[in-house]
Amino acid sequence: MARILEKYQQQVVSLLTKKYGYKNKLAVPKLQKIVVNMGVGKAIDNKKLVEEASKHLTVITGQKPLITKAKKAISGFKLRKGQPIGCKVTLRGKRMFEFLDRLISIVLPRIKDFRGLSPKAFDGRGNYTLGLTEQIVFPEISIETVESVQGMDVTMVVTGNSNEQSCELLKLLGMPFKSE
Question: For residues 57 and 89, is the Cβ–Cβ distance under 8 A?
Fold first, then answer.
C-alpha cells in the first residue's frame, strides 16, 4: 500500500474529523483524482513533439496518456480543428497516491529555488493546481532523451467543499505550502 494512503487512513482522517467536527468518516475530504496535463504549443510546427510528450508522460505516471486535440480552428495560431496539441493522464487509486508520494518527496525538492507551493492556487471548490516548468525534474526522464523541454500542470481534485479544508488535507498529506 502507498505510504500516503496509509497516512491518510491512520492519521489524517482523525485529525480532520477533530478539527472540523465531521460526524461521519465519509464526510472527511479525500483526494479523488490527479490529472497531469501537458499542452504542447509547438506541436503545430512539429508533430513529433506530441509523441515525445506522450512518451514522457507515460514514463512519469506509469499510464498511457490521452492525446488532446484542438476543439476549434484559430487562424492566428495556425491551428486546425482536430489537430493534436497535448496529452493528459487521469490517475486514481494506488497509482494516484504513488505519484503524489513521488511528487512530494522527490520532484518538488529537485526544483531549482523552491521555497514552497503557493496556497492561493485553489479554485474555490477545493481543487489545487500546480504548474511545473519542465519535465526533467522527474528522475525517470533522462535529460539526453529530451528534444524540447516541456511544462505540465498537475491538478489535484479533492472531494472537500472549501479551499480551507482541502488545503488542510494536502498539508497533512505532506504538501510543502509557503507560510504567509
Answer: yes
pLDDT confidence of residue 5: 87
Name which of 22, 11, 36 is nearest 162 in CA terms: 22
- Those residues with Cβ within 8 angstroms of residue 59's Cβ, 6 or more apart along the chain or in another chain: 138, 140, 141
Residue of 173, 46, 148 lying closest to 165 (CA atoms) = 173
**Residue 19: strand pairing partners:** none
3.40.50.970, 3.20.190.10, 3.30.1440.10, 3.90.1150.10: CATH of 29-173: 3.30.1440.10
Q: Judge whether 110 and 137 are in contact, CB under 8 Å.
A: yes
Residue 40: what are its φ and ψ, rounded to 5°?
-110, 90
Q: CA-based diameter of the chain, in Å? A: 56
pLDDT tens for 140-153 read 887 777 777 788 89
The sheet with strand 152-158 has its strands ordered as 66-69, 84-91, 31-39, 152-158, 128-132
> What whole-number percentage of the chain has pLDDT above 90?
15
